[in-house]
Amino acid sequence: MVQSTRTGGRFSRRTLILSAVALVVILALAIGLGVGLGTGNDDDDDDDNQGSSPEPTSTSTPLPPTNGTIWQPAVNSTWQIVLINPINLDSDATSVTPDVEVFDLDLYTNANSTFKTLHRLGKKVICYFSAGSYEPYRPDSSQFHDSDMGKELDGWPGERWLDLRSDNVRSIMTARIQFAREKGCDAIDPDNVDGYVCSNDRYSQDFSDVSFF
To answer: Is 8 helix (H, G, I), strand (E, B) or coil?
Structure first.
């Protein structure tokens, strides 16, 4: 057996080998722990988000307290979406066509009296608004800043994606939700909240699609 006279060099190689093994073990533990924590957080988020509403940010206008009742549509409920034009319904109407249980209507273009009549006829009203895009014709459109807006939506000239991280955007959307509640909506239908799966345009994030009061 040939012994090396460079004891320091042999010691360095041994240290290097041991260090490499230790590094592999540490990386393996770190990756395993990271995967475990990531999986656990996803499960917790899913559990926490079921049947709950997101808490407003510290800069958001607080919503009025709930009355303790939440409407949930029954399985196989009949419904109709009418977004392009408002429903023309007399305040003393005794029926509505189509005679369905749930109407999904634009929050702004339909009169309060329409909602009251539908409720009197035993119908539920879901109020539609765009929560993820800027529409220049909405009554609150002047409140958006240029920095809140990104690219135009394909096929919708003048409509632009919103940066949902913006405190200003969140404040406007909080006010819309409060307005829907005051108008008597049974639920809201915030549109354009799935931009991250629809396109690669900037400023698009995810919300839940329908929230019930």
So the answer is: helix
